[in-house]
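Anyone able to model this chain together with zinc ion?
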Amino acid sequence: MTKDELMIQEISDEIVYCKWHPKMETALRCYQCGAPICSKCARRTPTGYICPECRKNHIKRFDTAHSYDFIIAAVVALVLGAVASLIPSLPYAGWYIFFVSPLAGTIIVEAVSRLTGRRQNRHLWKVVVVAVTIGSLPMLLIYAFGGVIVFMSGSAWGMWDVFFSLIHLPLLLGAIIYRMRLR
Ligand SMILES: [Zn+2]
Ligand SMILES: [Zn+2]
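re: yes, here you go
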């Protein structure tokens, strides 16, 4: 702290320094704990500005999921991910996959949410993403590989099999991440 800054602090009680950035002058205070916070640390909420510490505690209170909810979520996502991975190999697989694969993602999120009693945790979506990916890969790889063989044997249609099996998982995961992170 420079001489000038020290003087300012002595003259005026109004100037406070951020609890996390001792060099940042600020007039903001956390509405919950009253700690001075700079504009970088402050997060606006409907009730006022909040400090990083109170914000963390606030988020924790919404983590209501039990540890077994993670296991339920993983198993459900693995099984339903495996079922959904049949979508690209359906007869007449086509552009409707852009609608059906995200829809399957939405159904998986709904199933996980119901079976875990709608309890929440900000990390639950990662478990679902990993489990769905593991459940999907065997069938998708088999189908993509089949497409390559069809293509090598002279039919360009094989490329579509490869394309649809590659595009399915990103569409599915996109819908899952979108639904689970928004809640
Ligand atoms: Zn606070
Ligand atoms: Zn700060």
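The beta strands are 16-17, 25-26, 43-45, 48-50.
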